[in-house]
């Protein structure tokens, strides 16, 4: 009897132990299945990860995008020599995007030039007046069209060095820069017709623009308020001529006011005064009148507002970046000052502002500048 009870107890213990063993095996199997599912899930996630997300897998996409942008060149113009074609491979940082920016600017220019409604505001003859504005560097096959009040002094210094008159920008005396008999900068007008055409077809050509209204403010301050170069004819000859014609209150004895200046510039019959003022008007006439951008195929059009990026790009595109650098730009000097512009125009009648805009509309449209907000109110 005792033997039977002992046997039953042993069987019970064995069965219990066997059941626990199976339970542990089943539990281990469940854990293994769960573990394998997690591994498989992680593999699927890494393999089919969204390419627009962030992570280590993004690096090849970024490198591919940069490579494509670097391969973009400026559009070829007819007869443009191969040595003027920028490869873009040496561009870094903001310069990687520059070819696209300049292509868009040239495309906008071409489209506006084709706009029949703006033809009178965008087209001009390539006259001696225009050819006088274009400076020549034969040694490096460069033409630069002067647009005063847009940092042109510094570009003249660059060309003076390239032409060999001085070995560095720092050596150039300020009084020499604008003395065209001593600075070694020939004008395009000094060549024969055939030589002019050859240079216009073959040379790298560029000029710089700026918000048209801000440029007019700069011209007014520089010539009629501060006059740092001591050019007496602006205050003693040109200003009185404008005042006599355009000042409403003749009893006022103060010097030329911005309101007088705006009224003169917006007058459709301004040309009879322009003839009297001669070449001095280059500081406030339109970019169209200065450089004939719809008649001359320019290689690059720089903007004063982005000169920190545009200047190195122009030097690179012209193939002269290893020979000369653009002078250091003081911080903030190229930033568009909306507050200043609005302050200067705050006392001007809407009629006079609209007439001024009507004259400079071509410059606004050709180079992508917005119509001033105070004209829309």
TrEMBL record:
Which InterPro entries does the record associate with it?
A: Carb_sulfotrans_8-10, P-loop_NTPase, Sulfotransferase
Q: Which GO terms describe its molecular function?
A: sulfotransferase activity
- Offer a single GO CC term for the protein: Golgi membrane
- Cellular localisation: Golgi apparatus membrane
Q: How does it sit in the membrane?
A: Single-pass type II membrane protein
Q: What is its EC number?
A: 2.8.2.-
State if Membrane is listed as a keyword: yes
Q: List membrane-spanning regions.
A: 20-40
* Keyword terms, alphabetized: Carbohydrate metabolism, Glycoprotein, Golgi apparatus, Membrane, Signal-anchor, Transferase, Transmembrane, Transmembrane helix
**Biological process (GO) annotations?**
carbohydrate biosynthetic process; proteoglycan biosynthetic process
Region forming the signal peptide:
none
Has keyword Membrane? yes
Task: Give the enzyme's main class according to its UniProt record, as a single word.
Answer: transferase
Q: Which family does it belong to?
A: Belongs to the sulfotransferase 2 family.
**What is this protein's name?**
Carbohydrate sulfotransferase
Source organism = Chloebia gouldiae (Gouldian finch)
């Amino acid at each position: 009897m005792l033997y039977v009870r002992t046997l039953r107890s042993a069987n019970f213990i064995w069965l219990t132990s066997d059941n626990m063993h199976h339970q542990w095996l089943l539990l281990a199997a469940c854990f293994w299945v769960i573990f394998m599912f997690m591994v498989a899930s992680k593999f699927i996630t890494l393999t089919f990860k969204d390419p627009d997300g962030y992570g280590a897998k993004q690096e090849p996409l970024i490198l591919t995008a940069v490579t494509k942008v670097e391969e973009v060149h400026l559009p070829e113009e007819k007869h443009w020599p191969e040595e003027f074609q920028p490869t873009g491979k040496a561009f870094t940082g903001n310069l990687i995007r520059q070819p696209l920016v300049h292509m868009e600017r040239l495309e906008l220019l071409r489209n506006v030039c084709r706009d029949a409604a703006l033809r009178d505001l965008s087209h001009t003859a390539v006259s001696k007046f225009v050819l006088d504005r274009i400076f020549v560097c034969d040694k490096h096959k460069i033409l630069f069209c002067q647009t005063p009040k847009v940092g042109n002094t510094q570009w003249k210094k660059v060309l003076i060095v390239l032409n060999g008159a001085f070995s560095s920008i720092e050596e150039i005396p300020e009084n020499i820069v604008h003395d065209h008999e001593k600075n070694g900068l020939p004008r395009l007008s000094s060549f024969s017709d055939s030589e002019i055409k050859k240079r216009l077809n073959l040379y790298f050509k560029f000029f710089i623009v700026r918000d048209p209204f801000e440029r007019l403010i700069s011209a007014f301050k520089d010539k009629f308020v501060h006059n740092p170069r001591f050019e007496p004819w602006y205050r003693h000859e040109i200003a009185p001529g404008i005042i006599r014609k355009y000042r409403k209150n003749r009893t006022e004895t103060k010097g030329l006011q911005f309101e007088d200046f705006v009224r003169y510039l917006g007058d459709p019959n301004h040309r009879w005064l322009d003839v009297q003022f001669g070449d001095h008007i280059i500081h406030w006439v339109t970019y169209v009148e200065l450089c004939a951008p719809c008649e001359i195929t320019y290689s690059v059009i720089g903007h004063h507002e982005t000169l920190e990026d545009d200047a190195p790009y122009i030097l690179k595109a012209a193939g002269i970046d290893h020979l000369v650098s653009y002078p250091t730009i003081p911080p903030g000097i190229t930033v568009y000052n909306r507050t200043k512009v609005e302050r200067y125009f705050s006392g001007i009648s809407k009629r006079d502002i609209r007439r001024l805009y009507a004259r400079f509309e071509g410059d606004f449209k050709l180079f992508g500048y917005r119509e001033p907000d105070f004209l829309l109110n």
